[in-house]
Amino acid sequence: MADMGERLAFLRGFLSRPREVASLVPSSRFLERRIGRVIDAGQAQTVVELGPGTGGTTRAVLAEMPADAQLLAVDTNPEFVRRLQAIRDPRLIVAEGSAEDLAAILRAHDLPRPDVIFSGIPFSTMPEETAHQILAEVWRVLAPGGRFMAYQFRDAVLRRGRAIMGEPLVECEWVNLPPMHFYSWDKSGRSGSRRTTGRATAP
Ligand SMILES: C[S@@+](CC[C@H](N)C(=O)[O-])C[C@H]1O[C@@H](n2cnc3c(N)ncnc32)[C@H](O)[C@@H]1O
User: Fold this and answer.
1) Domain boundaries, the chain
2) What is the CATH number of domain 4-186?
3) Does 55 contact ligand 1 (Cβ within 6 A)?
4) What tens digit of pLDDT does each residue of 63-97 get?
């Protein structure tokens, strides 16, 4: 849950880059917990978070993840990246960069294909071309049997994602105002537990 310093940093981030942050406040504790459940973080091995912001969602997912799992958090905002780097958890790797370059970022950190990618980046405020590039990159690097989940207030990712990934599973958190939608796409492939013994390298 964000303290006052974190809320102010988030607001500064919004004021300096409104289209990239697209929200005045970080996710509530309630939403943070729901994210962990929707991605089944307790079964994940290599997780990527796109748009972690000031890190509330990152900490919540780390709390659910197995002790030997890894989480790569990627954000474009250097101030957010500095705050994320202050999270003391050996499973966390923080990268400043764009989701468009996910394959290169995974390679730079010698990480395998993720079995979970989750995203809070606002697909509704970015150019069509950028959204397409990010979704295509996500789907390309995701491990067979893996899950991509985007939590969004608007449905732009649904319309843009269908062409690349097919129909998602849609869940809604009505307690939140405005209601938050969770769009999940499961890539076909290995079934059962997401945990792997082998290591498929990132493309
Ligand atoms: C709505 S905030 C979500 C923050 C946090 N996960 C939460 O729920 O409170 C969106 C975040 O996406 C980041 N972002 C926007 N475009 C991005 C991109 N192309 N690649 C990576 N991060 C991006 C912004 O800097 C911001 O931190």
Assistant:
1) 4-186
2) 3.40.50.150
3) no
4) 999 999 999 999 999 999 999 999 999 999 999 99
